[in-house]
Input
Amino acid sequence: MPTTEDLRIVLRELECDRHDLAAILAASTKASHPRLRRRQRAIPAVAAAVVVLLVGSLAYVSRDHIDSRPAAPVGDVNLLDRYLIKVGAVPPGLEFADLGVTTTSQSAALMNSDGAQLVEIQLDRINPPVHYEPNTGATSISVAGEAGYDWTSPTYDGAAKHQDGTIETISWVTGAGITFRVMGPSAPQGPDGRSAQPLTHAQLLAVADSVSADGNRPVRTPLDVGYLPSGYHVVGVSTTPTTPGQTETIVDVVEGSGANVALQIMLGTDITPASTNDRQPITAGAFTGSYSPSAVSTLLSDGQRSIEVYYNAGELGGTGTGTNLPIDEITRIVEGLRFASSSTDSSTWFSAADVLIH
Amino acid sequence: MEQLTPPFERFAAQILPRLMRFADVLTGQHQLAEDIVQDVLIRTQQRWERIGSLDAPEAYLRRMIVNDFVSWRRRLARATPTVVLEDLDVVTDGADFATDHAQRDELAARLRTLPPKQRAAIVLRFYVGVPDSEIAAALGCSEGTVRSHISRALTTLRVVAAEPTFSHRSL
Output
């Protein structure tokens, strides 16, 4: 069983000394570099487009219009909501758990009662699977290059499942162009570090055989986001079991097409909010961590669950700016959160009857 | 008058080898690593007056690299990482070379399957060795989320944690 020290060694081995550092440096420091020229040309063009859009929008958008727009439940906002992982044959003693859904991927797990993940299942609309070469016994990447990948390639058309004997991963691409990976840890551990009996190879194959994409089920998220400021949208939701009986659901929100997460809404079970405000109304608290300057948190009426909203008030590394949303907007977002009431799926994490206190 | 902000070129030349190594490990793709680092340096040059005056500009650039790596736009344009196993020059203590080699090959293969944020968290924790607070800042998430990312990644990697991987603040 590899240890974290092995992991450190493997990571160090990924270093590469074959780069032409002088060329990279020269390209990065010359103002005449083609990429910089493209950027310089693009900025005025983008700015002009933004001005046109803003002028055009002002005629239609007023504060009243923004405030009265309909609620935007998480499941309706730009999420992967057509293809969902369905496992037809869950081995006895295990439970199915959704781990997260984004615009392009979903992951789920089969867990035992201790919270140990015995199988992880990934659904991916972007990345092709790692491919096992039976003739050479080597693991290789099935598709090289970034562009022009043909999802309808005969190699991967249909639902032929492929066993990767090296990493105990079974991966295949369906005719609809989505990739499934089913991974069975050889020595799974729960969050508390206790080992769990892994599935046998035959059990793992049986799970893989029963995996399908079920387009009829709703996205199972415990929260509806009733209000988001104009221009903001949800890009991902994940629910992660942390320790037995505890979970964290995280809703990532970006502004426009931004790459940075501008807002992060976290629902935790049995977790004390970072800003201690025991059973008090929503307040702005000084987040003691170093991630963001601000966070809003509230403890739910049952005393066992909390909601925290983290937001970036500053730049996060150069690819975008923070939200700079005023506290009253953050508060409105929190007040707009509701437990999902439309889902009757028994595997929904939380009771829809609960409400927030304000 | 002495310049308070060191010239960008000198700064870039000094940190470039470290940034490239970090980007290599983070992305697992040499070409993508070069692309990201070059892009980040260009953006840094444009805003050098501000970035150069930061307390830890290198850490800031590392965050920019991580942001680029996990960004949705790049993810949409990226296929599965393409580092080949032959690139790995496994170092072992000689006790059981074959077992160690196979074990680390497996580990490297599993590393490629991690989602970008989980991989970034693993690289920052176990390669760069920065605290969770800095990882959280780089990934734009809370420290609790960092620990969740690492816990999930270690489960996928099937690595035995030699140190605690999850210690929620309220526990």
Chain B touches chain A through 98 residues (CB under 8 Å). The radius of gyration of chain B is 18 Å.
